[in-house]
Amino acid sequence: MTAMSGSDPRRLVLGNHLAELNRLAVWIEGWAQESVSPDVSLALQLCLEEAVANIIMYGAIDGGLEIAVELERRGQTLIARIEDNGRPFDPTQKPPPRLATTLKDAKIGNLGIYLARSFASHMDYERRQGRNRLTLRFDEPQAASPQP
Fold this sequence. Notes:
This protein is of the alpha+beta class.
Protein backbone atom coordinates (compact mmCIF):
# COMPACT_ATOMS: atom_id res chain seq x y z
CA MET A 1 0.00 0.00 0.00
CA THR A 2 1.57 3.22 -1.04
CA ALA A 3 -1.08 5.88 -0.71
CA MET A 4 -2.01 8.28 2.01
CA SER A 5 -4.72 7.05 4.34
CA GLY A 6 -7.78 9.05 3.46
CA SER A 7 -7.04 12.73 3.15
CA ASP A 8 -5.28 13.19 6.49
CA PRO A 9 -2.08 15.13 5.69
CA ARG A 10 -0.57 14.00 9.02
CA ARG A 11 -0.54 10.31 8.01
CA LEU A 12 1.34 8.46 5.29
CA VAL A 13 1.11 4.74 4.52
CA LEU A 14 4.18 3.11 2.97
CA GLY A 15 4.97 -0.26 1.48
CA ASN A 16 7.98 -2.39 2.37
CA HIS A 17 10.42 -1.17 -0.28
CA LEU A 18 13.45 0.96 0.50
CA ALA A 19 12.46 3.14 -2.48
CA GLU A 20 9.59 4.37 -0.28
CA LEU A 21 12.15 6.37 1.72
CA ASN A 22 12.18 8.96 -1.08
CA ARG A 23 8.41 9.43 -0.79
CA LEU A 24 8.74 9.66 2.98
CA ALA A 25 11.41 12.38 2.69
CA VAL A 26 9.27 14.48 0.32
CA TRP A 27 6.22 14.09 2.60
CA ILE A 28 8.16 15.11 5.72
CA GLU A 29 9.69 18.10 3.96
CA GLY A 30 6.27 19.33 2.84
CA TRP A 31 4.71 18.79 6.26
CA ALA A 32 7.58 20.31 8.21
CA GLN A 33 7.98 23.46 6.11
CA GLU A 34 5.26 25.27 7.98
CA SER A 35 5.19 23.24 11.19
CA VAL A 36 8.67 23.05 12.70
CA SER A 37 12.05 24.75 12.77
CA PRO A 38 14.68 23.70 10.19
CA ASP A 39 16.71 21.91 12.91
CA VAL A 40 13.76 19.79 14.04
CA SER A 41 12.75 19.19 10.42
CA LEU A 42 16.19 17.76 9.59
CA ALA A 43 16.29 15.61 12.74
CA LEU A 44 12.77 14.36 12.02
CA GLN A 45 13.62 13.42 8.45
CA LEU A 46 16.86 11.62 9.36
CA CYS A 47 15.27 9.73 12.24
CA LEU A 48 12.11 8.65 10.44
CA GLU A 49 14.02 7.54 7.35
CA GLU A 50 16.36 5.43 9.47
CA ALA A 51 13.49 3.98 11.54
CA VAL A 52 11.46 3.04 8.45
CA ALA A 53 14.55 1.52 6.79
CA ASN A 54 15.11 -0.61 9.90
CA ILE A 55 11.50 -1.75 9.92
CA ILE A 56 11.66 -2.72 6.26
CA MET A 57 14.96 -4.58 6.68
CA TYR A 58 14.32 -6.31 10.03
CA GLY A 59 10.57 -6.38 10.50
CA ALA A 60 9.43 -7.65 7.12
CA ILE A 61 7.10 -10.63 7.03
CA ASP A 62 5.97 -12.93 4.25
CA GLY A 63 3.35 -11.07 2.30
CA GLY A 64 2.80 -7.35 2.60
CA LEU A 65 4.27 -5.15 5.26
CA GLU A 66 2.33 -1.96 5.82
CA ILE A 67 4.02 0.96 7.56
CA ALA A 68 2.04 3.99 8.70
CA VAL A 69 3.78 7.22 9.72
CA GLU A 70 1.84 9.85 11.62
CA LEU A 71 2.95 13.31 12.77
CA GLU A 72 1.32 15.45 15.43
CA ARG A 73 2.24 18.87 16.77
CA ARG A 74 1.62 19.60 20.49
CA GLY A 75 2.83 23.09 21.33
CA GLN A 76 6.65 23.03 21.21
CA THR A 77 6.70 19.24 20.82
CA LEU A 78 6.42 17.13 17.69
CA ILE A 79 5.22 13.54 18.09
CA ALA A 80 6.06 11.00 15.37
CA ARG A 81 4.47 7.55 15.42
CA ILE A 82 5.49 4.71 13.15
CA GLU A 83 3.27 1.65 13.13
CA ASP A 84 3.70 -1.57 11.19
CA ASN A 85 2.13 -5.00 10.96
CA GLY A 86 5.44 -6.90 10.77
CA ARG A 87 6.87 -9.45 13.15
CA PRO A 88 7.76 -8.17 16.63
CA PHE A 89 10.71 -5.83 16.26
CA ASP A 90 11.85 -3.37 18.91
CA PRO A 91 14.14 -0.82 17.22
CA THR A 92 14.98 0.73 20.58
CA GLN A 93 16.79 -2.39 21.75
CA LYS A 94 20.50 -2.26 22.43
CA PRO A 95 22.45 -3.69 20.72
CA PRO A 96 20.62 -3.45 17.41
CA PRO A 97 19.53 -6.71 15.72
CA ARG A 98 22.73 -7.00 13.71
CA LEU A 99 25.87 -4.99 14.21
CA ALA A 100 27.78 -3.89 11.13
CA THR A 101 31.05 -5.80 10.79
CA THR A 102 32.37 -4.18 7.62
CA LEU A 103 32.13 -0.79 5.99
CA LYS A 104 29.87 -2.36 3.34
CA ASP A 105 27.41 -3.36 6.10
CA ALA A 106 27.47 0.14 7.60
CA LYS A 107 24.60 1.53 5.57
CA ILE A 108 21.23 2.94 6.54
CA GLY A 109 19.16 0.41 8.38
CA ASN A 110 22.03 -1.82 9.47
CA LEU A 111 23.28 0.24 12.38
CA GLY A 112 20.18 0.28 14.55
CA ILE A 113 18.38 3.50 15.30
CA TYR A 114 21.33 5.61 16.42
CA LEU A 115 20.04 8.84 14.89
CA ALA A 116 16.81 8.70 16.86
CA ARG A 117 18.78 8.00 20.03
CA SER A 118 20.77 11.15 19.31
CA PHE A 119 18.02 13.56 18.22
CA ALA A 120 14.74 12.49 19.78
CA SER A 121 13.98 13.73 23.29
CA HIS A 122 11.98 10.55 23.94
CA MET A 123 11.67 7.17 22.22
CA ASP A 124 9.23 4.40 23.10
CA TYR A 125 8.28 1.04 21.59
CA GLU A 126 5.24 -1.13 22.22
CA ARG A 127 3.62 -4.14 20.57
CA ARG A 128 -0.17 -3.96 20.63
CA GLN A 129 -2.83 -5.97 18.80
CA GLY A 130 -0.30 -7.52 16.43
CA ARG A 131 1.27 -4.18 15.49
CA ASN A 132 4.58 -2.55 16.37
CA ARG A 133 4.46 1.10 17.38
CA LEU A 134 7.50 3.33 17.69
CA THR A 135 6.87 6.78 19.15
CA LEU A 136 9.47 9.53 18.91
CA ARG A 137 9.21 12.97 20.48
CA PHE A 138 11.15 16.00 19.29
CA ASP A 139 11.18 19.23 21.31
CA GLU A 140 11.68 22.58 19.61
CA PRO A 141 14.71 24.44 20.98
CA GLN A 142 13.74 27.21 23.37
CA ALA A 143 14.27 30.70 22.03
CA ALA A 144 16.98 32.59 23.87
CA SER A 145 15.60 35.15 26.27
CA PRO A 146 16.53 38.73 25.39
CA GLN A 147 19.50 40.14 27.26
CA PRO A 148 19.07 43.55 28.94
